[in-house]
Structure formats: C-alpha cells, structure tokens
Amino acid sequence: MLRYSTYRSIYDTVPAQQESVAERWMKRARQHMSTIPAIKIVLLLLIIVSGWTGAYTVFAGGADKPVQAVEFIVQPGDSLWSIASSQKPKNTDTRVYLEHIRRYNGLKGTEIQAGEVLKLPVW
Predict the structure, then answer these.
(1) Range of the structural domain that residue 113 is part of
(2) Of 15, 53, 55, 75, which residue has the fewest beta carbons closer than 10 angstroms?
(3) Domain with 93 in it: what CATH number?
(4) What's the predicted TM-score (pTM) here?
(5) What is the pLDDT of residues 38-93, one digit of tens each?
(6) Do residues 87 and 112 share a domain?
(7) Is 119 in a helix, a strand, or coil?
C-alpha cells in the first residue's frame, strides 16, 4: 500500500467540530428573534406617542386670544362656513376659525341671517 499519494478529493473536507454556515446563520437568527417583538413594541409606542402629540398640537394651537376684530356684514347666501373659509388667516383650519367666530359673537349654532354684523377675530 502506498504511504503517500498525489490523489486529491474533489470535495472539500470540513472538520466535524466546525459548524456549517447554515447552522451559524440559524443560531444567529434564533438570537435575533427575541429582539424582533421588542422592536415592534417600541415602534408601536413611538407611533402612538407621536399621534397623541400631533393631536394635542392641533387642538392646543388655537387657544390664543384675538388681538382685534373686523366687522363683517352677512350678505344673502352667505353661510358661516363660507365666511370662515374666505376670511380666515393663512395656515388656519377653517373649522377652528369657525369656532372662534361662533364664540366671539356668542352664537349657539351656525345659523346667521343676511344683514347681521359679525365680528371676525384677527390675530
């Protein structure tokens, strides 16, 4: 029997104690699986907090008192909504401005009559 040979196998020989790439990948995947639910919970909390913060900002933004008022005579066919949308300051929500008009004039509803004089708040 030959002691030394020039024969080389076409297959790579991997020592038995070394892990295969797939086993290492699976082990890492299992380790990271426990962090995925934590990441989901953190993202959910961030979304909830940012939503509440945005809602608070929207409703808290219009609390300033008006500096002065401009008188507006209601014409036939005018509605409180049309007046609010045409006379509101820039970057102001029409609904918020309409509510300010109602409070400033002491209106209980949105009913107005032609010829009424409304005071429109100005900031």
Answers:
(1) 68-122
(2) 15
(3) 3.10.350.10
(4) 0.48
(5) 788 889 999 988 888 776 666 655 556 767 889 999 999 999 999 999 999 888 99
(6) yes
(7) strand
